[in-house]
Specification:
The chain is an alpha+beta fold. The protein has 2 domains: 54-361, Transposase Inhibitor Protein From Tn5, Chain A, domain 1; 388-419. The protein has helices at residues 11-24, 33-40, 46-53, 59-74, 137-140, 143-148, 160-173, 185-188, 191-199, 223-228, 261-264, 299-308, 311-322, 333-360, 372-383, 390-419; strands spanning 80-89, 99-103, 108-121, 126-133, 180-183, 203-208, 213-216, 219-222, 236-243, 246-257, 272-280, 286-293. The strands form 2 sheets. Strands 1, 2, 3, 4, 5, 6, 9, 10, 11 and 12 form a 10-stranded mixed beta sheet that branches. A two-stranded antiparallel ribbon has the order 7-8. Strand 2 (99-103) and strand 3 form a beta hairpin. Helix 1 crosses helix 2 (33-40), helix 4 runs parallel beside helix 14 and helix 13 packs across helix 14 (333-360). The longest helix is centred in the C-terminal third of the chain and has 30 residues, at 390-419. It is globular. Residues 13-216 form the Transposase IS701-like DDE domain. Pfam families: DDE_5. This is SRSO17 transposase.
Length: 420
């Protein structure tokens, strides 16, 4: 709260945002304005809903404070900016950005809302520093629909790689210390993103598809075709970093590739480009990465950067499981951006506290280091002493049932009118 208090001029939203953050960290069975307001001791969710929808504060300013908080505690010149998207399953058609689209959350095409996120992955820890809501063309081509959801008039259609490029540039322009960018195939196959990073002389290890065309002296060939020609001596067994079950060992090979015509025209694009190939030890399955480095680096460095990409999956899991990143029940543009930035701030608090604990304490034999999950548990039970009386709990029971009764009656009236 010390980092963001200045963004709230009035005392009421400043106090309420503190209670909101406590609610996000409270381990509630469901996290929404109703449950957070009840946990905060308020008589109705109106105040929390007002905080998200109408109160005078700027989510972008809080985003800048979040970025400063993370960098202040985790700063690392060799850090990796990791970009990826995640989907939140939704019902109906009125929630901003929702449509039937593929989402990795479900592993199939579902009615979902997709956000693109940026994680700062340093040696000491990792946390979110930015996000952007993906608006499909089914929204941007319907101004009335966008207006009803509160989408600003200047927001136009942008692909997920374009959103990622904006967030990365914003972070670099703000002086975030980082040397690398990592991402999956959605971002690795986007030439504009790769070119933009080369212009900034920022190294990248971006996944690409097996049929991604790679320029060689003998012409362009699919990545999988080049991998088939690699001799046995080209492979090196290296760890991509430690996971939940130990080190992630793979066989790796590096194929140097010449700078293609497009990249050669980029000012300041001098550097090394390569195709990094990963082979599973157990199944032999291949994965491919386009790499760029302003100066030559060893294979182990590229492998380590590729391994850092998984930190964003860990952040999604922690953000959704510990701070309600995906549990927002909001429909409008401004409410989505406000909810996500506060959930990211709560997650950053846990991530930074865990990193600080690991740095300041010696490992204890027989114990793992403090995790974000354990810190959230300790914080909730030791520091947050919010306890409510039976009348307060009964009041909320009546409030919920009364609201649900009104919603039921409205649905029945609408259904009757449609049948008539």
């Amino acid at each position: 709260m010390e980092w963001i208090a200045c963004r709230f001029v009035r005392v009421e939203p400043r106090r309420r945002v503190g209670l909101f953050l406590l609610g996000l960290l409270a381990g509630l069975p469901r996290v929404n304005c109703w449950t957070i307001a009840e946990h905060a001791g308020e008589a109705s969710p109106d105040g929390m809903q007002h905080l998200l929808a109408r109160a005078a504060w700027h989510a972008d300013a809080v985003r800048d404070d979040l970025r400063g908080y993370v960098v202040d505690h985790l700063a690392d010149p060799g850090a990796v900016l990791v970009v990826d998207e995640t989907g939140d399953l939704k019902k109906g058609v009125h929630t901003v950005g929702v449509q039937r689209q593929y989402t990795g959350t479900a592993g199939r095409i579902e009615n979902a809302q997709v956000g693109v996120y940026l994680v700062y992955a340093a040696t000491g820890g990792h946390a979110f520093i930015d996000r952007a809501l993906y608006l499909p063309k089914s929204w941007t081509t319907e101004p009335d629909r966008c207006r009803a959801a509160g989408v600003p008039d200047d927001i136009k259609f942008a692909t997920k790689p374009a959103l990622a490029r904006e967030m990365i540039i914003r972070a670099l322009d703000a002086g975030v210390p980082a040397s690398w960018v990592a991402g999956d195939e959605v971002y690795g196959c986007d030439s504009k993103l790769r070119t933009g990073l080369q212009e900034r002389r920022i190294g990248y290890v971006l996944a690409v598809a097996c049929d991604h065309q790679v320029a060689t002296l003998a012409g362009k060939h699919p990545a999988k075709a080049l991998a088939r020609r690699l001799p046995a001596r080209a492979w090196n067994r290296l760890s991509a970093g430690a996971g939940a079950k130990g080190h992630r060992w793979y066989d790796w090979a590096l194929i140097d590739i010449p700078v293609d015509v497009t990249d050669a025209e980029v000012p300041g694009s001098v550097g090394d480009q390569a195709l990094l190939v990963r082979r599973s030890i157990s199944t032999g399955e291949l994965a491919f990465y386009r790499c760029y480095t302003p100066v030559p680096v060893p294979l182990a460095t590229l492998v380590a950067v590729a391994g850092r990409r998984w930190t964003i999956e860990e952040s999604f899991q922690a953000g959704k499981g510990l701070t309600g990143l995906d549990e927002h029940q909001v429909r409008r543009w401004i409410s989505w951006h406000r909810w996500t930035i506060l959930a990211m701030l709560a997650h950053a608090f846990l991530a930074v506290t865990a990193a600080t604990a690991r740095a300041q304490t010696h490992p204890t034999p027989g114990l793992i280091a403090l995790t974000a999950n354990e810190i959230r548990h300790l914080f909730t039970h030791l520091l947050d002493h919010t306890r409510h009386s039976a009348p307060h709990l009964l009041h909320w029971s009546r409030w919920r049932r009364r609201h649900q009764a009104r919603a039921r009656d409205c649905h029945h009236c609408r259904q009757t009118a449609q049948l008539a």
